[in-house]
Amino acid sequence: MGLTLTWLSVIILIPLAGLFLKTFDLSLEQFWGIVTSRRTLNALRISFGLSFAAACVNLVMGTIIVWALVRYRFPGRRLFDAIVDVPFALPTAVAGVALTQLFATKGWLGAPLAELGIKVAFTPIGIFIAMVFIGIPFVVRTVQPVLIDLDPEIEEAAASLGANRWHTVFRVILPSLIPALLTGFALAFARAIGEYGSVIFIAGNLPNVSEIAPLLIVIRLSEFRYADATAIAVVMLVASFLIIFLINRLQRWAQARIPVH
Amino acid sequence: MSMQTGYASSTSELQSYAPAATDAGVAAPAPRREIARSRPVTAPRDARTEPGPVRFIIIALAIAFLSIFVVLPLVVVFASAFSKGISAYIAALAEPEALAAIRLTLLIAAISVTLNLVFGVIAAWAISKFDFTGKTFLITLIDLPFSVSPVISGLVFVLLFGAQGYFGPWLQAHNVHILFAVPGIALATIFVTFPFVARALIPLMQEQGTQEEEAAISLGASGLQTFFRVTLPNIKWGLLYGVLLCNARAMGEFGAVSVVSGHIRGETNTMPLLVEILYNEYQFVASFAIASLLAMLALITLIVKTILERRLDEGQLPNGD
Amino acid sequence: MAIEVKNIVKKFGSFAALDNVDLKVADGELLALLGPSGSGKTTLLRIIAGLDWPDSGEVSIDGENALARGASERQVGFVFQHYALFRHMTVFENVAFGLRVQPRAVRKDEATIRARVKELLDLVQLDWLANRYPSQLSGGQRQRIALARALAIEPRILLLDEPFGALDAKVRKELRQWLRSLHNEIHVTSIFVTHDQEEALEVANRVVVMDKGRIEQIGTPGDVYDNPATAFVHGFIGESIVLPVDVSGGSVRLDGRLLNIAPDAPLSGAAKLFVRRHDMAIGPAGSGALEGAVRHVRSFGPIQRAEVALSGGEGRTVIEIDAPRDRELQAGEIVSLQPRRYRIFAGS
What we know:
The complex is a heterotrimer. By secondary structure, chain A is mainly α.
């Protein structure tokens, strides 16, 4: 027991405490100056904005995928079910180079898109694509068990009360999935904000345009501007703690709303 | 035959509903029931599914999305790796640099999986079988690495052990190399992969409770005997599951390792780091050759994971009634 | 082996699960710990087994201090409420477990272990299930395997926590008789916990009635049923009619009306009159202590069952009384009820 706590402290707590301590080396003005500098603000905006957009896409597409996997039978269903986890399991660097290759102007998807005048690789769209890729499993895997466990009787009850399918889905089923959907959304959002490996290859990494916050941390570190790196990291950490807090709140809310029988 | 009985029962239900509906003054549902009755030959549609075209569109969207975003990138990896033929592929993997990266990756995975296995089991055991103050805090602590950007995970070790870090000067004075060396990479990897084993075990151990352990102890088993003969066999699939995911992440970790490694060629480059370097040097075949090994690891992990998940579902048959 | 428990106190936070409990169990007894849930009976059992530790007090088994030893050294057979069979082991291996984990110096050889397990499976009449896994057994079979497993270590005492709690009514009855006869056969000192009075009264030699962490009464089944020591025991065991009465100077009043019964103990003030249904004699109005109106009569066989609404006691007490058919009762008739046996306990 004591051993566990010690180990956890050594491996997790001390490093994180070190991070926060480091920020105290800075005065408040210095900290504020770093965080509100144009390049930092832009990096944070790109990270948070695109992550949010990607999480929205994941929410919609994730719901559709879950629905297809749980409710329908089609050839290859089990295969596609397993494939959902690929973004989890594939090392991020591999995903990064693969997506870049795929969406580069000479790539399999990049070439036809370039003809339409859409440039994906080395633009913010590329970042967005990579974030969508890594976020897929979160919504699917959070919602899937809830949809499977959903009591079939509530749908039958709705139908017997005269609701058509549209009403049943939007008034009965989706509302009971909302906590899981929001949790999945938050998880995908949090993951996209912190993502590094699968994004930096396709991003182009142009300051103020396609430079994400984690990359800016790495750049500051390589310039030995530790304080700058730390300040950005703290902002991101606080944001992800807020998201975790929200997720916990969501889950408690969901449990209170739907009591476990 | 079954169709007929189905129809018969549904009409009798309709008949018994009808007066109630009119009594209540509900007029609207009546025509719909008429329609249902006027088509007795087709089985009434399942109340729990959508019309055919809707179903088709949903399935098509799901397959298209997964194919574009997940299957194609995987295919690209292997296609690019073999684009110059199989001999170029093998040659790329036989490069000393590639071999060094593979060796380092295996070493790092071995270290971090072993340590996280031991401490993950202890942490899960402590959390699920005992009540103590600070338990919630401990759980949050375990989850933390999942929610922190890998870059930040690397950064914290730079802040601790780097030249300007808290322990940096002392380490330099004593000529101990942590950062830009194997220990740093191992530490960062342990940090990012810590949650896997504990997370896989906690729900399993919580669900199983302490009764079997108590039974073993009352039958005269010692603490270690109880652990190895009762606890461990009960959690073995969950443990394997955690180790599997821990290993996959340990071998594939990029962000955290990238920050602490220093990218010393042939020395501190793991496989994912080498993928990056080769790609940036436009050595696409070599880069994708390494990437294909990692992709293979991911695929094998997924296959084993699927098998294990089935095992776990079976193992979770309740022991009681 | 005799068991002695002295001044046991066990608190969970501010909740006193056991509040100064004393108990002596004689060698070879089959004792029931009976009480509602939360009465502390399972906690007491777990403390005797060494699965829980008291905050203070003593436990001795066969005259030696049991608290100096952990659960694994006490040689106590414990049968868990939900059996706690090892799900990854066959029935055979479950029963063999206690023999296989013995220190090498005393461990039997494989052939002896096999013979012993076979013998135990024969004893519980389930030798044909040796190679099954727990998940393939019925509830009653799991229960008997759990018992065989506990017996394998040749326990000095046998403790059973709600042994029939998770079984359906029919299997429960069968297993009760079986446990009784098994105890007669092996005669190991046994304590079982139950919240089912019928089970306790039918199986045990002696019954310990517990409530709120205290022992209310210890006695033979006949004792606790016929001579309940406290109001709680009277109310908990058997069906009782409870009426609020006033006692003063040796007379008992219900709603101000004098009843021709005497208090069985010196007490005065507000009290409760406890009577069992079958201890009441029904007679014509004015002949007994209590009065009531017949609301409904059903006759079958040699008896008639009358539903009588008692006057007094807030007028809401309705009791069903069996009376012989020699005088047919009529609905609406006023009758009197005379308690043949009753108890009055202080308190309101």
